[in-house]
Amino acid sequence: DNSSTPSQSDADGNGKRSIGFFPNYNIYGRNFSALDIPVKQLTHVMYAFANISNVTGEVTLSDPWADVQRPYDLKDKDGNATKLEGTIKQLYLLKQQNRHLKTLLSVGGSAFSQNWSLILDNETCRSTFANSAVKLMYNLGFDGLDYDYEYINSTDQAAHFVDLLNKTRTQLDMYKNVTSPFLLTFDAPAGPSNYKLLDFKGMDQFLDFWTFMAFDYTGAFTTPSLTGHAQNLYGDFTIGTPFNTSTGIDYYISQGISASKINLANPLYGHAFQNTYSGPAYLFNGTGNGSFNEPGGSWDYNQLPLTNNSSIHEDDDLVASWSYDNDTETMVSYDTPKIARRKARYIMEKGLGGAAWWEISGDKKRAESLIGNTVYVFGEEEDSMDMKGARLLHGAPQDASGANHDVFGGLETSRNHLEYPGSPYEIFRNNSTGE
């Protein structure tokens, strides 16, 4: 009996995963809806985030209006309690049209992780958590659950988290006789002080894949206040690059995690540093507000570089990039398309499972899309990778000769779930459009 082992339904030959995080608040200030998701370039969408009761451990929707109530067709409002609307309905309609596209309900995130820490040591709460999370996932037509706890902070919590994964997998497996197994995944920390506390062997037996969150290495929070790369692939272990991605990935693999189960998550945003010089390890003073006036100097990638006279710099050794404006004395650490392609090659060479992005509304279009450039590399033959030849025209990548190239040929194509007989919503019970 392999009921507690992860599903293999997610693996399709050597195809890579391409995972986009979609926060439910995107429909507001960013005016980015499910209809804007680049579905052809993604294999999975992580819908973020469900909340956790800090008293009982119950997992619930964090914004019911955005999730299941907001009408996309304003004429379609009948007041029926079992009538589903919102982004979650739209995600299901996308699944009907794109059978390769899997959706997962992501639970936690930085905003709700404090709630997680308050209930994790209570076994009754862990049972409530697992039962309610799986029920919510199933009733709302998702293909699995993604857990994002920032961060497990003790060996006791690490053991309790393994138990939570065990309880969750047990609940997920109750639906095995209905359809193919559901997915269970974990958003994994990139900081050594965090990942060295994890029970890798205990967790891995219940997980389909790990998504390594390779960003926020530096930022407004950095002490001392030195500029640095926020998502560099390699490190030189100097004061300006205290962290790097490859060391963390190597550690995960050394703990017995298969490279093919690890996805490299990249940021679709940058960290700004003001009153400073160009490059890492310079003192800075302030970050300013970022996109949508958010504090902390975090800017969506599609708003970078901040000025037309910013210079772009790429460090081929560390695989990192940044912009600098002499007039405003502002540096922004973020990935360029060239850096995205280098990281994609690393994923291919290392045999990792794929890539992920936080979060998809921040991407640019066509030739400057970081998702598009990454997926392009996945679709290339490994022995004929020509980074300089990658061009995206009208949404369709072409090589240097102009010959069409199957941009999606490198992605895994396992099919999603469409039938949920026990759901209270007719659209999921009957695989309908919900009209």
TrEMBL record:
Residues 16-381 form the GH18 domain. GO terms for cellular component: extracellular region. One of its GO terms (biological process) is carbohydrate metabolic process. Its EC number is 3.2.1.14. GO terms for molecular function: chitin binding; endochitinase activity. Belongs to the glycosyl hydrolase 18 family. Chitinase class V subfamily. This is chitinase. It comes from Lachnellula occidentalis. The gene is chiB1_0.
